[in-house]
Amino acid sequence: MAERKVRVRFAPSPTGPLHIGGVRTALYNYLFAKQHGGDLIFRIEDTDSTRFVPGAEDYIIEAFNWLGIKFDEGVSFGGDHGPYRQSERRDIYRKYVKVLLDNDKAYIAFDTPEELDKKRAEIENFQYDASTRGMMRNSLTLDKAEVDAMIAEGTPYVVRFKIEPGRDVVVNDLIRGEVTINSSILDDKVLYKSADDLPTYHLANIVDDHLMEVSHVIRGEEWLPSAPLHVLLYEAFGWADTMPQFAHLPLLLKPIGNGKLSKRDGDKLGFPVFPLEWHDPKSGAISSGYREKGYLPEAVINFLALLGWNPGNDLEIMSLEEMVQLFDLSKCSKAGAKFDYVKAAWFNHQYLIQQPDIAWAPAFDKVLKENGIEATADQEAEVVRMMKLKVIEYVDGLGNKKKRNISFASDLWPLTKFFFVAPTEFDKEDKFIRKNWKENTADEMQQMVTVLAGIEDFSVEGQKAAIDPWAEQTGIKPWNAWRVALVGAGQGPDMYELAAFLGKEETLKRMRFAIENSPL
RNA sequence: GGUCCCUUCGUCUAUCGGUUAGGACGAGAGAUUUUCAUUCUCUAAAGAGGAGUUCGACUCUCCUAGGGACUACCA
Fold first, then answer.
1. What is the ipTM score, two decimals?
2. Phi, psi (rounded to 5 degrees) for A35
3. Spatial CA neighbour of A439 closest among A405, A471, A481
4. For chain A, what is the mean pLDDT?
5. CA torsion sign, A175 to A180 to A183 to A184?
6. B65 C1' to A124 CA distance, Å
7. Mean pLDDT of A427-445
8. Closest by alpha carbon to A300, among A266, A348, A267, A356?
9. Most buried residue among A64, A82, A279, A442 by CB atoms closer than 10 A?
10. Residue A253, C-beta contacts closer than 8 angstroms, at least 6 positions apart
């Protein structure tokens, strides 16, 4: 086969938000293109005017922008193979339909949708093909004068592909090998619709891929059954020698139960199936997005890449650049992959903890704001800023070794709220509280309040100097009860550090509150 | 119903005829931590079933079962 430049495309139809499976298909196209120094084309397949959804196109572009998948040409990216929106290519399709018609590869059919429905009801497994087209109203059964007259009158008609039966059509798939289908099971597909004066996917797809010099078609498995039809179309046009190579990707399946991943699964199980939040313009319904859920784009990309492909070894955390190097279509799996959103969260955790301290600040800001911690006056703002830095330090841990169990920025609040808010009640059922707050704990706390109230230096060292001797003398081990008082739960940093952070006043306040509202 | 595709731990997967079938997520146990989290260690967990081919099969072939996709004037 002649060597030619790798050119691949991702061609969604703007019928709504971009499905996460589509994101993966685009990603694989991107990896393949970049690895071979080729081009990635962004084409909009809007040949179904009835399903057009305003805003969908912009949404898709924004999503890829967020994810870091860059296109070389296409809608909004430019290029010299345009236009890249199929609705703007009517004249081109008309021209090529005529070529097929003139060469007896296609014919005109006048059967109305109602007539077809009737046929389907009458005849079991009715299919418009070589065995039935002789009894339908088309340019094969009507004489030419009649056909011309009907066209002149403006009778609606479609153009159908004339499939010769009884031929084994071989599709060479980069992932699945040779797939053979007999042409007799294919129907005479509508190539050009009367309803909206636009071609169907099949025709537009072949014409565009040819004209845009696409070398490889990497798409979802749902297209495999119609791949033989596409091969036949390339042949009918005489383009067989430059026909792209096919690769049909396995589907993304529901995490539980059967079937492919759908929009509703996400809503039901609480994970997004769209990259960005989507507001449906008609129903007003909102579908959650990975970006808004707090996912990092790198994590989404990494997770998605491994659903159906792997580098052949144990490597899991990979950058886009690394994946470009390692990607291999022949290493793609053939079977559908269940969508494991728990592992998606783990990937996000991995990327989140790699972030430097400073990167946490904006996300943390947002979390605090959502929970009502917001400074108004300048002085307060400074205090909150300092607190945040301290808390980020705690969250980040020492030397990046003590990362907290955080998959999303929103996980920060339950982990750090005690820095900002004093306990207001104590859960008597809480295991930690029950274990560490006993009959005489209130008395012991009172003693401790007295000791702490008497010290000047409330630093970690200052506290230790007062508390440690007292603890040793009395035999009281106050730390866990102290934690109950200051945190209200069995979590948080070292107690002296926490107390120093909160300051003497707040520390004593919380202790007195716990004594009065004894969590017994 | 028809056509095609697929089938290794619960999940994602490695293995391209010879392995104690490996890794990761999740689960469980233990150690560390004054708490939690981290970290570390460990454990359980798989070749759908049946025939072949072969000295030898997870790997090749066939059958069965199961799953999936497609079967529109949608993509």
1. 0.95
2. -60, -35
3. A481
4. 90
5. negative
6. 28
7. 85
8. A348
9. A64
10. A259, A260, A261, A336, A337, A338, A339
Is any atom of strand B within 7 angstroms of residue A434's beta carbon? no
**Ramachandran class of A504: left when φ > 0, alpha when ψ lies in -120 to 50, beta otherwise:** alpha
Task: Please state, in angstroms and as integers, the Cα–Cα distance from residue A4 to each residue in A74, A151, A245, A330, following that order.
Answer: 20, 42, 12, 19
Neighbouring-strand partners of residue A179 = A171
Helix (H, G, I), strand (E, B) or coil at A171: strand
Degrees to nearest 5, angle at CA A373 with A372 and A375:
120
Whole-angstrom CA distances from A239 to A39, A192, A207, A461, A496 are: 21, 19, 10, 82, 77
Q: How does A209-218 read in b/e, with b if 16+ C-beta sit within 10 Å?
A: bbebebbbbb
Q: Where are the alpha helices (DSSP H) in A15-143?
A: 20-35, 56-67, 90-102, 113-122
Q: Which residue is nearest to nucleotide B66 (CA to C1')?
A: A258
A79, amino acid identity: G
- Helix residue spans in A309-456 (DSSP H): 320-326, 341-353, 357-370, 378-396, 412-420, 431-436, 441-453
User: Which amino acid does the sequence have at A330?
Assistant: S
* Residue pLDDT, tens place only, A66-125: 999 999 999 999 999 989 999 999 999 999 999 999 999 999 999 999 999 999 998 888
Locate tokens 């007539």: which residue?
Answer: A115
Find the nucleotide nearest A253 (Cα to C1′).
B68
CA distances (Å), origin A377, targets A54, A374, A382, A503: 43, 10, 9, 21
pLDDT tens-place string over residues A450-505: 999 988 898 888 988 889 888 888 888 889 999 999 999 888 888 988 898 888 89
Instruction: Tell if A136 CB is < 7 Å from nucleic strand B.
Output: no
The answer to whether A238 CB sits below 7 Å from nucleic acid chain B is no
Contact between A451 and A467 (Cβ < 8 Å): yes
The pLDDT of residue A129? 95
Strand order in the sheet with A39-42: A73-74, A39-42, A7-10, A216-220, A245-249, A168-173, A177-182
Does nucleic acid strand B have an atom less than 7 angstroms from the CB of A414? no
